[in-house]
Write a structure and sequence with these properties.
The chain is mainly alpha-helical. The protein is 53% helix and 7% strand. The protein is flat, with a radius of gyration of 19 Å. Bound molecules: zinc ion. Zinc ion binds next to α2.
């Protein structure tokens, strides 16, 4: 019955943190927040910085209830606009169980952290859209249009047999493009090409 205290504690660094770095590859922050290692090891901890423990927990919720195949499809759809990072089937069966199930989402988070750093100079409300199109900032209208054309073609539902993941991705791409097109025309410090 003391919500304010509980809330403050939830975001305070864990006093039992072992003094290691954040577990996300490439993150230099201290690992002061804990998260369960896997569904099968709920009392073994991994240590993250605040930003990444939030992302880790969000990924955990997001992938809960999906089969390994569904998660793989999800991640591949996401990563295929960058580059494939693991061969098809890697997340299936035994590999999934051995990895504890969250290693691959974590690799994806590391990729996102990199993109986020690159887009740091962008207006805050555009960063997510830039990340969705894997673009840095500033960006020219010409580069934006070229990337959109490429991604829209690749992720168009007609080109993916009505796959639900592709359809969701297509919507994200369209929203990102529509938002960025307007703002880039107005705000980008780069001259039009
Ligand atoms: Zn971190």
């Amino acid at each position: 019955m003391r919500p304010r205290t509980q809330r403050a504690r939830a975001f305070a660094p864990d006093p039992d943190a072992p003094g290691v770095g954040c577990d996300v590859p490439g993150c230099e922050a201290a690992g002061e927040y804990r998260a369960p290692r896997s569904r099968r090891a709920l009392r073994e901890w991994r240590w993250f910085c605040l930003e990444h423990v939030r992302a880790y927990n969000a990924a955990w919720d997001y992938y809960r209830g999906m089969s390994p195949g569904q998660i793989e499809a999800e991640l591949r759809a996401d990563l295929s606009w960058q580059r494939p990072t693991w061969p098809l089937g890697r997340l299936g069966g035994a590999d999934w169980r051995r990895s504890g199930g969250l290693e691959e989402p974590l690799a994806e988070l590391a990729g996102r952290a990199k993109q986020a750093r690159r887009a740091e100079t962008a207006p805050a409300d555009l960063r997510e859209h830039l990340a969705a199109l894997d673009l840095g900032w500033p960006v020219t209208l010409v580069a934006l249009k070229a990337r959109y054309k490429e991604l829209a073609k690749r992720h168009h539902p007609d080109a993916n047999g009505g796959d639900a993941g592709a359809e969701a991705r297509f919507k994200v791409i369209n929203l990102a493009y529509a938002t960025l097109r307007t703002r880039v025309a107005r705000d980008s410090p780069l001259p039009a090409e």
